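In the current project phase, we have settled on a layout for protein records. One protein thus recorded is set out beneath this paragraph:
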Amino acid sequence: MKLNYTIATLGSHSALQILKGAKDEGFKTLIVVTPDRQKFYGRFPFIDKQMVIPTYKDFARVDAQLQKQKVILIPHGSFVAYLGVAGNKEIKTPYFGNKKVLDWEGDRNQQRKWLTEAKIRQPRIFKNAAEIDCPVIVKGFGADGGQGYFVAQTQKDFAQQIKSFAAPTSAATESKKYLIQEYIVGVPMYLHFFYSPITKQVELLSMDRRYETNVDGIGRIPANQQMQMPISPSFVVVGNSPLVVRESMLAEAYEMAERFVTASQKIIDQRGIFGPFCLETIVTPDQKFHCIEASCRIVAGTNLFIDSSPYASLIYDEPMSTGRRIAREIKIAIQKKCLEEVID
């Protein structure tokens, strides 16, 4: 079957995985890039065409042009970071996913309502510093890879650090709001799921742990020396490493994801969330998942698994990345003449 559509995305985040997967599924591919990234993305033969814009915030300049080329756009974290929720909603090019989900993902209070509706275990949230009675982590709003986060041990510690707090001022946040969350001690485990509105099935495709600087580096220094070093922990994500979970815990992982999807269909709209999403959890010694937040799109941790993962291999007898799974869903929708079910 000849696919007369082009899969496109912004040149950042997980673009290589998305476009490699699209090419493997038989689509033409296009990348929207800034001048400084033309040479880099030109190295990869699975990218058929480049479209250059001055900055990613200038995406609106090429929106009409993309529409004329039968393009389907695949969003990732940089869409939110550079264009913001409003900018994503203004895109007219067919867009994989439900844009209404953006309002719930980008607002931590709304996201907490969603996770609560799904009956997913979460850390406590403190309305103000006066309630702090345990170690907490303070987070800005938006998709900024941990930028600006800090840990406080006490109310006094919080009061001192909040003076210099500056949440990322990307288009996604548009404010300096923050959230005070209980700091859960355990193993960070990011579960990469895919929900198909065509098959009505949730798939666990892979799993990762983020490497955050400098908090992960501090752990390599002896405790007595840490106390003498004037270093404040930072949670900026710079890389990822693969993980697998105990098999006895997989059933709960799937059940969480299924409840998350069902809850979205109740509180957002009938379509709810579909395509890739990630439940970002901390696993405690009692083998319980505590969901610290959710990402409602492809996450960069899936870049570890361009050649598939142990979990994808349980479902597919061929290499299957999250990027390729997106393209597969679009191809199935075209074949079944229900493309409108997976685009916005």
Notes: The longest helix spans residues 250-267.
